[in-house]
Amino acid sequence: MMIGEGEEKVITLEEHVSELDEELARVILKIAELSKIVRRELPHRLGKASTWNVSGEEQTKIDVWANELFTEGLMSTGLINQLASEETPEAIENKEGTGAFNITLDPLDGSSNIESNNLFGVICGIYDARHELPAMGRNLRAALTILYGPLTTMVYCARKGVHEFVKGRKERFEDVYALINENLKIPSKGKVYGVPSNREMWLPEFRHFIALLERENYALRYGGSFIGDVNQVLHKGGFFAYPAYLDRPHGKLRLQFEANPMSFIIEGAGGKSSVGRGSILDVKPTALHQRIPVYLGSKELIDQMETLFAKCRDARLYY
Ligand code: AHG
Ligand code: MN
Ligand code: MN
């Protein structure tokens, strides 16, 4: 059912998550509530913060402000044991040592896109508190993204399908998140691919795989925000990578804050993720801010890529 078709009843996020464990539903709804505040605040928090995060990236004012908003808002629920953010060096712990969940947060993914009004958004991972951060993606309880674009949309997966909502206009849907896609499935092959620049520094086997996609007329779609680029692949089918580079073998994206939650959603929608050999969700973490090569998308394409990578490994008999 798509929102606005006829006068069917709107299914709100509140109604949809009522099927979940009550405390998990409260965390998801809290993130949804905070995401609306960020959307309203964006025009007033433009520009750089003149501070740098632990990954050495210059922060924008909204990176810093959204990070504080989400951190304080989530910790105030009493439901969070540990919260780790891309924007802060260490995870923060709930003083009482209680809280059912551990949270990973990229409070604003694609923040370099804000000044040019391109796509950006929030990426969140939710673990049961027994999985101390940094955690394996396979142990995610839920993952959700909020994408700030012409529409504000939310996608969540809590191990029972991938569901998408759009933030309605006040006069019609009282600014709620209304269901627009339930049990969203990624198309098996699709037609778009997203990859970053600097091709001459890619590994030869990855260059070869991208040449195969181009020969099959896949359309290049790369907007510089992980959340926006992967959302296109989720809807249209295809392939996204922020690959290993000859001079950056771990790539750029962070396992905890970007790769795990997004891989959880893509795999929940019937797609696949890969670190080059095997799912990103099975990578054993070694550090909170570690980077990891990311390949994800339609199952057939990831299988094809991993088969090619394996052939290249096997052919290296002499070096
Ligand atoms: P963030 O804004 O949270 O630091 O993330 C930016 C990331 C990711 O969103 C995107 O895929 C990638 O940076 C783009 O990197 P390039 O500018 O190197 O293409
Ligand atoms: Mn990011
Ligand atoms: Mn970010």
In short:
By secondary structure, this protein is α+β, with helices and mostly antiparallel strands. The protein is built from eight helices and 15 strands. The protein has an eight-stranded mixed β-sheet with strand order 4-3-5-6-7-8-9-10, sandwiched between helices.
Structure description:
α2 (22-41) runs antiparallel to α3. β8 and β9 (162-167) form a beta hairpin. The chain is an alpha+beta fold. The protein folds into 2 domains: 13-181, 2-Layer Sandwich (Fructose-1,6-Bisphosphatase, Chain A, domain 1), CATH 3.30.540; 192-311, D-Maltodextrin-Binding Protein, domain 2 (3-Layer(aba) Sandwich), CATH 3.40.190.80. It is built from 8 helices and 15 strands. Bound molecules: 2,5-anhydro-1,6-di-O-phosphono-D-glucitol and manganese (II) ion (2 copies). One manganese (II) ion binds next to β5.
Features:
24% strand; Fructose-1,6-Bisphosphatase, Chain A, domain 1; 8 helices; binds 2,5-anhydro-1,6-di-O-phosphono-D-glucitol; D-Maltodextrin-Binding Protein, domain 2; binds manganese (II) ion; 2 domains; 319 residues; alpha+beta
